[in-house]
Amino acid sequence: MTDRVYLDWNAGAPMRASVVARLSDSLGRTGNASSVHEEGRRARAAVEAARRSVAALVGANPRGVTFTSGGTESAVTVLSPQWFHGGRPLAFDRLLVSAVEHPAVARGGRFPADAVETVPVDRDGVVDLGALDGRLAALAADGRRALVSLMLANNETGVIQPVAEAARIAHGHGAMLHTDAVQAVGRIPVDAGALGADVLTLSAHKIGGPQGIGAIVRANDLVAVPPLLTGGGQEGQARAGTENTWGIEGFGVAATEAAHDLKAMAAVAERRDRIEAAVLDTAPEAVVFGAGAARLPNTLAVAVPGLSAETALIAFDLAGVALSSGSACSSGKVAASAVLLAMGVPTDLARCALRISIGPATTDADVARFAEVFKKVHADLTKRRGSRAA
Ligand code: PLP
Q1: How many domains does the chain have?
Q2: Domain end marker among 224, 242, 261
Q3: pLDDT tens by residue, 156-201
Q4: Cα Rg, the chain, nearest whole Å
Q5: Predicted TM-score of the model (pTM)
């Protein structure tokens, strides 16, 4: 396994050595963060230190951070028709989501299906702010209030959304805005205040923390959402259940380091660009998705017409290179990506989409290995085509 090349960081970044070291140490320790004895107090101190680190990663107040089991639980919790504002009930009649959201958001969370509306995106996958503005104006004129959910960066294409502008538009119509920042943190600077989003959601395993831990970050401290999980009063009554102290500690360590990773992103972008250039050199017919928009420095979504993602993935895997087709989050099945279809990509081409996502630990040798395997996979395709034509 040692010579494998891992180019699937958006599915899950390798766990950082510092996180592994912290977990090895803390797994041997006992203590429930709600207990008053010394063991409990130690666990509580570790949880609160991690809360400060996660808040610092997005420039928020630690009091606004609630730990959850990951990005999905965070999203489902905040996509709620019932909120509080200044302690008083605040109800939303509609949820407006962009057409390229992760399924954790696209499914609408706690809203009934008929209260969820989709806002279109352009060919690069950037949300249509005019359409958002128009729909919010119409709802407001009807006396209805909306919650808007717009991701900060897309998991498949890396395309970065104009969240600050969307938040201004939303607030202008009395709406509130959630941003799924799961793929953005650690890759682009994220400042909750500058973004203007009321609430952000995060996941540890995309930044080299453990899987199964995430957070909700309330940037607007006037607002609060009723818990999704009810029971005990953990997390200041915001999320019941004994805290996953180890996961939280690992998340805290990863958050602190992820903030430093931003310095490495110019080098990451340069390697991603070399991967993109290698694809286009070998296959000038390849299509890069979101090429006309601002993208994360680490992500490339590309398709070679006629080279099915399924075939390519298997060939890459056998050659020791792990990458992904569209979204790899779920079933392991290669279906046409809903994100690409929403961008107007034809189904046949969408079925050929490959996602290459890298990180600060990706090396020049990894880039060279990708280029070499890609050449071979493409040559096999050309040969197959030639023999079919003969
Ligand atoms: N949001 C985005 C943009 C994601 O990419 C993912 C996971 O891939 C999630 C949410 C869900 O996060 P988690 O895997 O922690 O539930």
Answers
A1: 2
A2: 261
A3: 999 999 999 999 999 999 999 999 999 999 999 999 999 999 999 9
A4: 22
A5: 0.96
